[in-house]
Amino acid sequence: MNAGAYEAEIKDVLFDATAIDRQGKLHISKAPDLGFTYRHSNAPSDWIFTSATLQGSDDSSEAIAARMENIAIAREGSQPIRERTGGSTFKNPKGQKAWELIDRAGCRGMQRGGAQVSNTHCNFLINTGSATAADLEGLGEEVRRRVEDETGILLEWEIRRIGVLSAVGGAL
Ligand SMILES: Cc1cc2nc3c(=O)[nH]c(=O)nc-3n(C[C@H](O)[C@H](O)[C@H](O)COP(=O)(O)OP(=O)(O)OC[C@H]3O[C@@H](n4cnc5c(N)ncnc54)[C@H](O)[C@@H]3O)c2cc1C
Fold first, then answer.
1. Based on the structure, what is the number of domains in the chain?
2. Cα dist. 122→26, 89, 105, 108 in Å?
């Protein structure tokens, strides 16, 4: 899914990756062949990745440790990392930040059953303890509706939902 954060993505460090398909055939792909875009790759969905070669950049171990520490501090201060959450809920639309649109639509802190839009970072949905999948999905769909009404932008789920869509969840 080309995970990324803080201006870097897997595609920036991946050299090559090995996958096996359902017929047992091995595929070794160089990073550019995997068609990485934002939170997406073109790898066939039946491939199972078994290894990857990553290429870092030279720096002193102190400088690398300091960068890691700074990111950990920034993340701790801006995301609800100690709560029950699935991470970023919606993809950032091109040139926009999902959390800003959600905030602008007045959804920060909004609740449905045991699900809540995080007050710390409003692109995170939190299970406050008793949330059902339907609470989380319904809340997410309500956020999408409000953001579209307010900004004209329809947010796209980053979280991949599986199973049967609940009646309250709304259209995918
Ligand atoms: C608190 C939190 C914060 C997050 N923050 C970020 C962030 O800042 N940036 C970001 O980009 N993402 C973020 N995420 C999302 C995270 O990157 C994805 O959830 C990621 O897919 C997790 O990988 P996993 O292997 O742990 O999950 P899994 O659920 O094990 O796998 C995710 C998907 O990949 C498939 N898969 C797993 N292993 C393989 C394999 N070997 N070969 C092929 N397919 C496989 C699974 O079938 C599944 O569809 C966050 C998630 C959480 C919970």
1. 2
2. 41, 9, 11, 5
